[in-house]
Amino acid sequence: MAERTFIAIKPDGVKRNLIGKIITRFEEKGYKIIGLKLLLPTLEMAEKHYEEHKGKPFYPRLIEYITSGPIVAMVIEGCNVIAEARRMMGATKPEAAEAGTIRFDYAVSQEYNIIHGSDSPASAEREIAIYFKEEELCSDWNTMLEIVTNGK
Ligand code: UDP
Ligand code: MG
Question: What domains, with CATH codes, occur in the chain?
Answer without folding.
Answer: 2-150 (3.30.70.141)
